[in-house]
Design goal:
CATH topology of chain A: Pyruvate-ferredoxin Oxidoreductase, domain 3
CATH class of chain A: Alpha Beta
Number of domains of chain B: 4
Structural class of chain B: alpha/beta
CATH superfamily of chain A: Pyruvate-ferredoxin oxidoreductase, PFOR, domain III
CATH topology of the largest domain in chain B: Rossmann fold
Order of helices and strands of chain A: EHEEEHEHHEHHHH
Oligomer: heterodimer
Structural class of chain A: alpha/beta
Largest sheet of chain A: 6 strands, mixed
Number of strands of chain B: 26
Shape of chain B: globular
Helix content of chain A: 40-55%
Helix content of chain B: 25-40%
Strand order of the largest sheet of chain A: 2-3-1-4-5-6
Distance between the termini of chain B: 43 Å
Distance between the termini of chain A: 27 Å
Radius of gyration of chain A: 16 Å
Strand content of chain B: 15-25%
Chain lengths: ~200, ~650
């Protein structure tokens, strides 16, 4: 059993980052780990930054990841991935990033400029060992709904083999936690995410 | 939605729970009879989890009109021997203080527990108060959980402790307990079949009437007689644990979530067995015998706690009483922790390392340099109203009217709710402090810079009256509030304004729900917390009953009419109330989704758009400015078709898809 494994899900309100954190947490409990998850979100509005720190291991206490100790960054949104990755990624860590940007209102009104995607990728590469950029949003639409993005990303993460949780446990937890009528769609989303990693290596 | 892990009777099962859900599970395990709350982040999920469970088990739970009411309701159950529970956020806790300070003069018969979620760091709150101080002020017990497991267990046990000393007990959570999740082992659910009984002379004559003979003062004497009993329970409490490290002169006392950070820090520093460690779960009163034992072993003691130095000041006074020559480091004199803000694992690790004289793990300078290079790329993602939010239309109309009839320097006073975002300043360029002696007019063009004052629930209408009575003559005085806040905090102050002739303008942003905390119903919604239909309480009728003569109801999706209403209110030299009513855009979106209704988005006709950016000043996240061609654009994925931008457009350039 792994001593400690730190994951951060970074996204924007409405992308399903909280459900993804909870799926990871529940799957880790099934495998006998201790779990702590810290969530950061604003008020009820959509479109704000939403992140989840997921810490699993033999014995973990604090809900937040320490600076430079993040093993796995799951960026549902690029800029949010960069924001949290810069603060927390470990030099040995991995970043899996959905390459579709969602503009902050600050960019929309012309107060700020959204960074170039290639620069984001290069920046993350300076911070950690491996950066994997995937078009998760496209795969989610292929699965049947943009809302399956979180599960596409989870499939991709599982595909890398980095997660200390088995594929079977993840799949079982997804089916237990997503709305019943979306099970098939989410199964497909997981497989699409998984395959996109398997096909690139 | 009912959460299985709140209701399932499977003791020893390990589940993942949010701290607030864990508190709710503790309430269920304790067999509570009456639970009441008013929503407030980071505490709202407690009652959201309890209400469906109450329906399942057949006990009573409600959203109340405000925290004062909620606590009184819970107290009522405890006065007839049943268990009462109330949950509040930090600021909401202040609303229960009157009753909390007084009910201890006589106490309770059934267990009475209040769970308060503090917010160090003030991420979703208007202050950083440490509510544990209230327990000291009130002379009662306060539990301070360090994990989600303890949040559940302490809440459950708090009822037994409350009944043992016949006084209320505070369970104080913090945002990182309440809004974090952890693995929690479930306990048994207590079947509570006791009958509610009332005896006004139970153990003490005239017990529940503070003015009953012999005197009010005599009930304070009784309260003080309970203190040794509380201290005895605290000394025996499993939530206080002491581990002495023989031979070490270092001692750490850690309370609440700081204990969890401390355990990790000591593990990382490989110092777990090199320091005597006292975990404190009873933040007030502290376990004095255990503290004394620690002080006997250590001559250098660090006190780790999140919030204010509540444990520290008790330890210091005990050390003084015992005549101990101990160096105490904390947040009062020898600073080892920042005195404000939230703790995190890094701060506690740094602190512990410094305290133990060990090197801290620092980021390499090369890595720091890389981070510094990246930081300018990371542009903010500011909080804004949702696309189609009715507040966007209300504020636009209000600003337009204020420009015309607001005077030189109008003042807009607000309070808590989504409309508070009008003071977030997210479009503001760098603002310098001003030292002017005269009133200063600032922009009325920015949607997020309009709210001039904002403090607490209902503060706007109150301070407006004080401003008015100074004879302030540089501009109109406007108070803004919401529907839920109207019921919560406005009504007596509105009566005061009418009665004492404060000729201000009150604007009620009525979106039918308590939106900001996650859409709980309020008295104007027409349903109660459990979702059942109830009487819809009318804000208009209340205003009329309060004596308001100038009352208008407008629609934020009908800008011209609303501007006219605001102009009328501002021109009037009598008190005016304007209710701007429209269903919250998020609730509307959910209704549309469930009914399969699709609304065509709006778009900008680039031929007609002159790039004046009027639509941008609405502050709607769906309205963008295309820097390349200097024209506005509507994000058709985000647009909910409210038409506010089309109405605001001076050149008629914004149209709905499919329209002519």
């Amino acid at each position: 059993m792994i001593e400690e494994y730190n994951i951060i899900v970074a996204g924007v309100g409405g992308q399903g980052s909280i459900l993804l954190s909870h799926i990871l947490g529940n799957a880790a409990i099934t495998e006998g780990y201790q779990v702590r998850i810290a969530e950061t979100y604003g008020a009820a509005m959509r479109g704000g930054a939403v992140s989840g720190h997921i810490r699993i291991g033999k014995s973990v206490f604090a809900p937040m990841v320490r600076l430079d100790k993040l093993d796995l960054l799951i960026g549902l949104e690029l800029l949010e991935g960069l924001r949290l990755g810069t603060k927390y990624l470990s030099p040995d860590g991995t970043a899996i990033i959905n390459m579709r940007p969602i503009n902050p209102i600050d960019v929309n009104v012309g107060n700020a400029r959204y960074p170039d995607i290639n620069i984001i990728e290069k920046s993350l590469e300076k911070l950690c060992k491996e950066v994997i950029m995937i078009d998760g949003s496209r795969l989610a639409l292929e699965a049947g709904n943009i809302r399956t993005l979180n599960i596409v990303m989870l499939g991709a993460v599982a595909g890398t083999g980095k997660l200390p949780i088995s594929k079977g446990t993840l799949e079982e937890t997804i089916l237990r936690m997503v709305p019943p009528r979306t099970k098939d769609m989410n199964k497909k989303a997981f497989t699409l995410g998984w395959n996109t990693i398997k096909n690139r290596t | 939605m009912i959460l299985m892990s709140i209701i399932e009777d499977s003791p020893r099962k390990r589940v993942l729970l949010m701290g607030n859900e864990a508190i709710a599970r503790g309430v269920v395990e304790a067999g509570v009879c009456v639970a009441s709350s008013y929503p407030g982040t980071p505490a709202s999920e407690i009652m959201e989890a309890i209400i469906p469970a109450a329906k399942h088990f057949g006990f009573y739970a409600e959203w109340a009109v405000n925290e004062m009411t909620a606590f009184n309701v819970a107290a009522g159950a405890a006065l007839v021997g049943k268990r009462g529970f109330c949950s509040v956020k930090n600021a909401g806790f202040n609303w229960i203080m009157d009753m909390l300070m007084t009910i201890v003069f006589g106490g309770v018969r059934g267990g009475l527990v209040v769970a308060v979620a503090d917010d160090p760091g003030a991420r979703t709150s208007s202050n950083e108060q440490d509510s544990r101080f209230a327990a000291m002020w009130d002379e009662i017990l306060c539990l301070d959980p360090s994990t989600q497991q303890e949040a559940k267990d302490m809440t459950r046990d708090a009822f037994d402790l409350s009944e043992a000393v016949e006084l209320p007990v505070i369970v104080r959570s913090v945002a990182r307990i309440s809004h974090s999740l952890g693995d929690v082992t479930l306990g048994e659910i207590k079947a509570e079949n006791k009958k509610a009984v009332f005896d006004k002379h139970w153990k003490i004559p005239f017990r529940w009437n503070v003015y009953g003979p012999p005197s009010t003062h005599s009930k304070h004497v009784w309260l003080h007689e309970q203190i040794p009993k509380i201290k005895e329970l605290v000394e025996k409490s499993k939530y206080n644990t002491l581990k002495i490290s023989e031979g070490s002169k270092y001692g750490i006392i850690a309370s609440g979530i700081a204990y969890s950070y401390c355990l990790e820090a000591l593990r990382w520093l490989d110092a777990l067995d090199k320091v005597s460690l006292l975990k404190i779960g009873t933040a007030h009163p502290i376990p004095e015998k255990k503290v004394e034992q620690l002080l006997n072993h250590a001559n250098k003691v660090a006190i780790l706690e999140e919030g204010d130095p509540v444990v520290e000041c008790q330890v210091r006074s005990l050390a003084q009483k015992l005549g101990k020559e101990v160096k105490i480091l904390g947040k009062m004199y020898n600073f080892i922790l920042p005195p404000v803000g939230e703790l995190d694992p890094n701060i506690v690790e740094d602190t512990s390392a410094k305290f133990l004289g060990r090197p801290t793990l620092k980021t390499s300078s090369n890595r720091e340099k890389i981070k510094e290079e990246i930081k300018p790329l990371i542009v903010p993602r500011s909080s804004a109203w949702c696309p189609g939010c009715p507040h966007i239309g209300t504020y636009y109309a209000l600003r337009k009217a204020l420009k015309k009839f607001g005077g030189k320097v109008p003042i807009v006073n607000g309070d808590m709710g989504c409309y508070e975002m009008a003071g977030y300043g997210i479009f503001a360029k760098k603002i310098e402090p001003s030292f002017a002696e005269e009133s200063v007019r600032y922009t009325l063009d920015s949607p997020y810079e309009l709210l001039d004052t904002c403090h607490i629930m209902g503060s706007g209408i109150g301070v407006s009256q004080g401003m008015y009575h100074t004879g302030y003559s540089d501009g109109k005085i406007v108070a803004v509030t919401g529907d839920s806040t109207f019921f919560h905090a406005i009504i007596p102050q509105l009566i005061n304004a009418v009665w004492n002739n404060a000729n201000i303008v009150l604007v009620v942003f009525d979106n039918i729900w308590t939106a900001m905390t996650g859409h709980q119903p309020c008295p104007g919604t027409g349903i109660v917390g459990s979702g059942e239909q109830s009487k819809r309480v009318s804000i208009e009728e209340i205003c009329i009953a309060c004596g308001v003569e100038n009352l208008k109801v407008g629609d934020p999706y009908k800008l011209d009419e609303l501007v006219e209403i605001f102009e009328g209110a501002l021109k009037n030299d009598k008190l005016s109330v304007v209710i701007s009513r429209r269903l919250c855009a998020q609730v509307l979106a959910r209704q549309r989704l469930s009914q399969g209704i699709k609304v065509e988005p709006y778009f900008v006709d680039v031929e007609k758009c002159i790039g004046c950016r009027t639509c941008l000043t609405l502050g709607c996240p769906a309205v963008l400015f295309d820097m390349e061609n200097r024209k506005a654009r509507i994000d058709e994925v985000l647009c909910v078709g409210c038409s506010i931008c089309a109405q605001a457009c001076a050149t008629d350039a914004i149209k709905q898809k499919g329209s002519q």
